[in-house]
Amino acid sequence: MESTAIRPVPPLASPTRAGLTGAMLALAAGAWVVTAQRMEGMDGGPGTALGGVGWFMASWALMMAAMMLPSLVPAVLAFARSGERTVAAFVAGYAGTWTAAGLVGYLVFNVLRSLDVSFLAWDRAGRYTAAGVILFAAAYQCTTAKAGWLGRCRNPLELARVNRSGVGGGLRGGIRHGGYCLGCCLALMAALFALGVMSVIWMVVIAALIAVERLSPWRATGVYGVAVVLAVLGVWVAAAPGDLPGLTIPGSMAMM
Each residue of 243-254: pLDDT tens digit? Predict the structure, then answer.
C-alpha cells in the first residue's frame, strides 16, 4: 500500500529563482510601459468613463500585470517548487481571477453611471463619495477579514505543500491565490477607482501600497502604514481635492 505522506518539496536552485524573478519583473515593466501609452490623456479624474468593454478589459489586464506581478513573485517562486511547467498556468489562473473581477467592476461602474444621479456630481456629493470610498479602504486595513486574506497572500509556501503538477493544478493554484489576493486588495482597488482608475500616477501609488503590505518584513507596520496613507488621502479629497497632487478634478481637463 502506497504511503500518502507528503514528500518534502526541494528548494529552487538560485539560477531558477533569479530567472523567474527577472521574468516577472520584466513582464511588469513592459506592462507599465504599454499601460502608460494607452492611458495617455485618459485621466479625467474620479468617475471617468471606462470606454468600451473590450478596450477596458485589455487595459485592465495590462494594469493588473503592471501592478500585481512584482508582488506575486514570492507566490510564483513557491509554486514553481512543485514543477516549473505549471508556473505559466498558475499566472494565467491568477490573471483570470482578476480579469473576472475587472469585468464585474466595469459592469457595476457603468450601471451607476447610467443612473445619472445628479447629486453625485463632483461639485456636490461626488467628492465626499470618493473620499468615503478611500476612507472605507483605510478602515478595511484594520479588519480581521483583511488580516486573514493578507496572511494567505504573505504565506504562499502553502501552495508548494502538495505537488500540483500539470496545467490543471497550475490553474487551480492560480485561481486560489488570485482569490486570496482579491479579498486582500479589493478595497485598495476601490480606492483606485475613487482617485481615478485611468491615472497612471494613482496606479503607481496603489501598486506601491500593495507591495509594501505584501512584501514588507514588518507586516503590522506595513498594514497600518497603508491605512494611514489612505486615511490622509481620504480626508484630503474631502477637504481640499484641488490641492492634492496628482488628482484630476472631473471636468477640469475640458476647461483647459
Answer: 999 998 887 654
